[in-house]
Amino acid sequence: MADEFIKGLGIFTGGGLAWLTLASWYRTPGFESTQQLVAPITVSGDNLFNALGIVLMDVFFWFTLIGALTFWVLIPGTRELRKAIENRRTE
Question: Which keywords are on file for this protein (predicted)?
Fold first, then answer.
């Protein structure tokens, strides 16, 4: 169980840091703004690097959420379900 927790934590911190960096570049209109990191994208994807950054921002967001939930909820839940099914068969 500790193995799954540390994998989920690594995905959560790494992906979250990457999303936070990209969101601060593309979704912060100014430091005086109250909508930092959640404002609409302020830069158009007119060149390759901006388009890649905007796409990677969404990729890292979903990777962080799905990856952490997979290692923290789905894998342990599946193992517990298998154990319950095996115990039910042996009774």
Answer: Membrane, Transmembrane, Transmembrane helix
